[in-house]
Specification:
alpha/beta, about 500 residues, Rossmann fold, single chain
């Protein structure tokens, strides 16, 4: 029988002007468990956690901690109760060292002087608890993202956290860092500290979660034991569709080659690679981290120099190391890191969409504002981009909508070939389904698509052929009929028969 809940939230409602953000939302968390909170962007997950941690006041409902009613009116009050939220954007001061960040606002003093020795000793103990092997005197600016997260957890433990909320904690972590973080979370569970874990990554739910609560449209739609559910059931709870219904392969007749890559190579990065992609074809690129998938895409686009080889689009040879010429020829590139390389976050939605087509909407060197807004407006409507207006700063959009803004830009440019590098990474399953639908529409119009993905269901569900890479070498290209997860992994790991 499950322990009596440490936290219980029942019937929580929150209204903003014109928006019912939460309606009868409920959640209970037991001591020591990892409770995953799952839902599309806009489902109410963050709002519910902000109510819990004192950033918002609930309009209705009840919250209790260890059987006692609570209603924190600020994050500081929530922390006093032992409720700590670690945001995706970490809340550390880079110019201070680790110990100073851990004790920020709570520095021990004697005779009016800060006790640096106490801060250091206590910080060492806390860092040991979270398996963080850094010196307390190290400036936070010198730490990796994974180390910074552990410092955040250490700070929470110093405040004697009774419950931690972690929002997308692995978004910027490598696989080995993720497993290290999971060990810390499991250790907290053994100490009786529960974690509410917000994530879009299905595999993480099954790797770390004990229970999962699914939200949709501000409501709680179900809670499941992780070991007694599966991906399909969770997706159905989230969006009302199974994964097979999301990835519906379009039956498209493949035309003549539009993209031709011949002997593309770069010393130490890419062995000579030759591929072609026909009009209306989706060529998947599979491989493990470090296999050279992104390097290949950047070389094709001309973002990185190469030592040998040619790239043709529509029969025209590109000059190489010249992205502007690639765009002019009709080649678009949706980068893996949309925030750093794909968007100008401080520009508006409309301005981001038209960045690659300014020549077409300018007259005599002057931008036609009316034409720009018309073109951007059509694409916002077509792609169902959820923005308050064309003037909204792109930085304030959800991850899925940011990705659609990047896609809208290349649609505006009229691309004949699109390179997609991890197009659905970090976005929820509802937004994923919309991206899949858009890719289907593109190939029906004759656009050639190169799809780089770490998500095996995406590759198997969408690709006509799958090219598999290992350490910069093309290991083989599998037709749709012969591509399977096992065969792809054999090639990706170089376990060839």
């Amino acid at each position: 029988m499950r322990d009596t809940p440490l936290l219980r939230m029942a019937g929580v409602c929150k209204r903003f002007p014109g928006v019912q953000a939460l309606e009868d939302a409920s959640l209970d968390v037991s001591p020591g468990e990892v409770h995953v909170l799952l839902g599309e962007n806009g489902a109410g997950k963050s709002t519910l956690m902000k109510v819990l941690c004192g950033q918002y006041a609930a309009d209705d409902g009840e919250i209790s901690l260890a059987g006692r009613p609570i209603a924190p009116e600020s994050p500081i009050e929530a922390e006093r109760l032992g409720l700590v939220m670690i945001h995706q954007e970490l809340n550390l001061i880079p110019g201070l060292n680790v110990a100073e960040n851990i004790f920020l606002g709570h520095e021990p003093t004697r005779g009016g002087f800060i006790r640096g020795d106490v801060m250091r000793t206590t910080s060492e103990e806390l860092l040991w608890r979270v398996r963080c092997e850094v010196d307390p005197d190290t400036p936070v600016a010198q730490l990796s993202v994974a180390e910074q997260q552990l410092v955040e957890i250490a700070r929470a433990l110093k405040e004697e956290a009774r419950l931690l909320v972690m929002d997308e904690p692995t978004a910027a972590l490598a696989d080995h860092e993720i497993e290290a973080l999971f060990e810390v979370i499991r250790g907290l569970g053994r100490e009786g500290v529960p974690v509410i874990y917000i994530s879009h990554r299905m595999r993480e739910i099954f790797a770390i979660g004990d229970r999962v609560t699914v939200m949709r449209d501000g409501r709680t739609v179900g809670t499941r034991e992780v070991q007694k559910t599966d991906v399909n059931e969770l997706i159905q709870l989230m969006v009302g569709r199974t994964i097979d219904e999301q990835i519906a392969k379009r039956d498209v007749e493949i035309g003549e080659p539009v993209l031709e890559v011949d002997g593309l190579a770069r010393e130490g990065t890419l062995s000579p690679i030759s591929i072609s992609v026909g009009a209306g074809e989706i060529l998947g690129i599979a491989g493990l981290m470090g296999s050279g998938r992104t390097e290949l895409a950047r070389a094709i686009f001309g973002a990185d120099p190469v030592d040998a080889g040619t790239v043709k689009v529509g029969g025209t040879t590109l000059p190489g190391n010249n992205p502007a010429a690639s765009i002019e020829a009709g080649l678009g590139f949706l980068t893996e890191d949309r925030k750093q390389q794909g968007l100008v976050l401080q520009l508006s939605v409309g301005e981001n969409i038209t960045l690659t087509s300014l020549n077409e909407i300018s007259r005599h060197g002057l931008l036609d504002i009316a034409a720009e807004r018309e073109r951007a407006g059509e694409l916002v409507e077509k792609l169902h981009i959820r923005a308050t207006s064309l003037d909204q700063e792109t930085v304030n959009l959800s991850g899925g909508n940011q990705q659609k803004v990047v896609l809208a830009r290349w649609l505006a440019a009229g691309c004949r070939v699109l390179l997609f590098d991890e197009p659905t990474r970090g976005i929820d399953v509802g937004a994923k389904a919309e991206i899949y639908e858009l890719i289907g529409e593109l190939v029906e119009r004759g656009v050639a698509v190169v799809l780089i993905s770490s998500e095996m269901p995406e590759l198997l569900g969408l690709a006509d052929r799958v090219a598999v890479m290992h350490e910069g070498t093309l290991q083989g290209i599998l037709n749709r009929s012969e591509a399977s997860q096992e065969r792809i992994m054999e090639l990706a790991l170089q376990f060839t028969s």
